[in-house]
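The instructor's notes for this session suggest beginning with a concrete chain rather than abstract definitions. Hand out the sequence below and ask the class to guess, before any prediction is shown, which regions might be ordered.
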Amino acid sequence: MYPLSLLRLPHQRTPKVPIISGIDEVICSEREPPQLPLSNHQHSHVQQSEQLFALSAPSHSAQILISGTIVWAHHEIEQLKQYGEVVQLTSTSRQQFYDELQTKYANTVAIYRHNDSAGKIGFFDKELIDRLPSTVKFICHNGAGYDQIDVSAATARGIQVSHTPAAVDDATATTALFLIVSSLRQFWKAEVNARKGVFKQGLQPASDPEGKTLGIIGMGGIGGAVAKRALGFDMKIKYHNRREIQPPPSFPCEYVSTMDELLATSDVVSLNLPLNDKTANSFGKKQFSKMKVGSVLINTARGGVVEQEAFINALNSGKLSSAGLDVYPEEPKIDQRLIDMPNVTLLPHMGTETRETQHKMEVLVIDNIKSAISSGKLLNQVHEQK
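After discussion, reveal the predicted structure:
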């Protein structure tokens, strides 16, 4: 294990990130949703989780700040104590956090960051990152998407950032497939009607997924997992990335070099791309105009990549026959107009909310911290810093 004095980062350069312009040039990197508020089951673990941090490593060790609640990976947290003093975030406001950075958290080297900490100390924006002690060298985020972290500010401070890409692929892809089937078959509305005692009434003619073309924007880990599941329904797969995947995927799919062609030839479009300055509101009026009349939009990425008014208009005009959403621009708020639409399937950003996936995510964050402290390198460093 490296002593604290040896935890020095290599000389940091401004990462050479390609200049991209909007959704046509998006890098196929995907997300795991901001975490939902803790469920009753998770709340039952909070006290137990906090008790795990009562026993700490010797005071001379590097501090590891846990900014969030460990629900599943209790054994791994115990192991983490061999790498440093594990400290639980107790600050209840940003100002209190700033004050305690000079005292309680003054020797922090690595931060386990979870989106549920945003309710207490806010996003890891430039202001917060600039206030971190100089000892902080690593921010290890629990999530594939990391739009709540200012990576540029972290890079300027010599702080490496990691995320949990592969851990979320299966659960998010399963969510996307549910939304695809529900949107095509109107299952959600049929279930609501059945619970009201309305039997097979008030439904428009539905569509089979078999033989339909699924266009995937962002064929990364999640996009690939969506494709493989959709093939089980005999859907045809097309995808658009900045570049064609080489070597080609092991499953049948067609690369489409332009966004316009993908939209014009797909019956269902699945968004699997990150939210950043280049992709925010980048799927808008122009993109909807290129889609087939009566097509379907599925979004399990981030609500902010879709321009909301253009989306509502596409649904109202019939350009979109239906849509399936797990993400929204202003979570937890959902636009009432979407709630009132019987042809839109809505989920409360629960793409990764399974015990198996949450456990995998927690373990991967802890593994990144272990690697950071023992070798000075992260296992899953964000692409902007590579």
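Then share the key points. The mean pLDDT is 87. The first helix runs from residue 40 to 52.
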